[in-house]
Structures are given as structure tokens and as C-alpha cells.
Design a protein that fits this description.
Layout: E1 10-14, H1 19-29, E2 33-38, E3 51-52, E4 55-56, H2 65-70, E5 74-78, H3 84-95, E6 99-102, H4 108-111, H5 116-122, E7 127-132, H6 147-154, E8 168-170, H7 174-196, E9 202-207, H8 208-219, E10 237-239
């Protein structure tokens, strides 16, 4: 896009699924020039989503509407960042960029030589935004997280349905959208700060799980504090799949 409040802002995005891509599309919707980088060998898995809660999302031209909805207002480029050539092309893009956004597990881009310390040397004014499932320190820092896990572990699945119902997953991706909104919010704050202090690189980290816990705590106190489920059904709720991770979905039901 060449219009909007972020017109002229350049974003290099290396992210997959929902959390990072939705954050990037929010910037694109505001007019930023977003270039999405994908591996030619293992592209964004959202490209291959064919069905969501029983609804066919693969379009006639072979593209997934799921991927399209997460990646509108972006340009796309395939780069193998495990090769020297791929990394050099990415660095060339970063030299001219205002923002770098990634949502891989902590340490992945450091191992590739594309972490904050390295890229901030290439571009001293770069805003480097990293996201992770459970933060960047602690025993779970390297675990992956998807929307359903965020809804489960934060207790959000306990906020829909009637008493006695199993945990209910909201198919609208609220955990990913909440995290993406917060990362876009942080990037906009960094852009505003950069306007007042040009020439200083800024890095920001954001945890998927923490943002959704904050959303749930702002909604109700939880079962142990006396709150009850009121039957506020999700747009398209369905029972959660019982697993080691999702067992922790309830805040008092077990």
C-alpha cells in the first residue's frame, strides 16, 4: 500500500501461522510496505490449511483462504536462510527496513547470525520485534505455542460454555489475534520513540501466553475465586482435544 499512516515504513517479516503474520498484516493495513519471507523448502504451514471447523477454506486457484487472510497487503519472497546467499539477501533488505518481525522459537535467528545484535549493526535505526510462546527465559522458553494452546493454558477455554461443559476452543484465533495486536502495538510505540531518537536501534520481545493470560484475568477472576461459566458461547465453539497441554485449560475443573 502507498497510503495510510504507515506509508513509507518498510517491514521485513519472517513469521508463520497466525501470531506473527497477523501482527504484520496490521502494519500492512496501516500502509506499511511488508515483505514476508518464507523458506522455499518449508513455507508458512498456513498455506496448506484446507479446512477450519468444517468449513472448506481452499480456494479454486489452490490457495488457502486462511493464509490469504493472515497475509494480505504484503509482498512475498522465498529465501533459504540456511544458505549464505539467502542470509545476504535478507541483510540487504534489512539495511533499508524500519522494522524486522519474527516469531520463531527463541535463539533461532541468533544461530543464523540474524539476531538483534547482528542486524542492529547493519541498520542502527532498526526496530527488531521478536515473539515467542512463553517468553525468552525460563523452563518453557523453547516450547512452541499455537492459538489452541494459548487459549488452553491461559484459561480462556473456561470463559465460554455452560457449567459442566468441557473446555471450549474459540475458532476465531483469539490468542493469536491478542498476541498480534500487542506486538503491533509495541512496534508502533517503538516507531514513535524512534521519531524522537533517530539513530538508535530498538529490540522488543513479546510472549504469546502472557498476553492471553492478561486478557483472561481482565475478564473474570477464575473458578477458584468464585466465578462461574455463564454460557457465553464462542462464535464457533467446539470441545478441546484432551492432551497433556490442554488438560491445564480449566482453572479449577481439572
Amino acid at each position: 500500500m502507498d497510503i495510510g499512516p504507515l506509508s513509507g515504513v518498510k517491514v521485513v517479516e519472517c513469521s508463520i501461522w497466525g501470531f506473527g503474520p497477523i501482527g504484520g498484516l496490521m502494519l500492512g493495513d496501516l500502509g506499511a510496505d511488508v515483505i514476508k519471507i518464507e523458506s522455499p523448502r518449508r513455507p508458512d504451514p498456513a498455506r496448506h490449511v484446507t479446512n477450519v471447523v468444517g468449513i472448506e477454506v481452499m480456494m479454486e486457484d489452490g490457495r488457502s483462504a486462511c493464509w490469504q487472510s493472515f497475509n494480505r497487503n504484503k509482498r512475498s519472497l522465498a529465501l533459504d536462510l540456511k544458505t549464505e546467499r539467502g542470509r545476504e539477501v535478507l541483510k540487504a533488505l534489512v539495511r533499508e527496513a524500519d522494522i524486522f518481525l519474527e516469531n520463531y522459537r527463541p535463539g533461532v535467528f541468533d544461530k543464523l547470525g540474524l539476531g538483534y545484535e547482528e542486524l542492529s549493526k547493519i541498520n542502527p535505526r532498526l526496530i527488531y520485534a521478536s515473539t515467542a510462546g512463553y517468553g525468552f527465559e525460563g523452563p518453557e522458553a523453547n516450547k512452541p505455542a499455537l492459538d489452541v494452546v494459548g487459549q488452553a493454558r491461559s484459561g480462556f477455554m473456561w470463559t465460554s460454555g455452560a457449567p459442566g461443559d468441557p473446555p471450549m476452543w474459540n475458532s476465531q484465533g483469539v490468542a493469536d489475534v491478542m498476541g498480534a495486536t500487542c506486538v503491533a502495538y509495541g512496534i508502533l510505540a517503538a516507531l514513535r520513540g524512534a521519531g524522537a531518537a533517530r539513530g538508535r536501534a530498538e529490540g522488543g520481545d513479546l510472549a504469546h501466553h502472557g498476553q492471553h493470560v492478561a486478557l483472561v484475568l481482565g475478564d473474570q477472576r477464575g473458578d477458584d475465586a468464585g466465578a462461574t461459566r455463564t454460557g457465553r458461547a464462542s462464535t464457533a465453539p467446539r470441545p478441546a482435544i484432551r492432551s497433556g497441554t490442554c488438560t491445564s485449560a480449566g482453572t479449577g475443573s481439572g
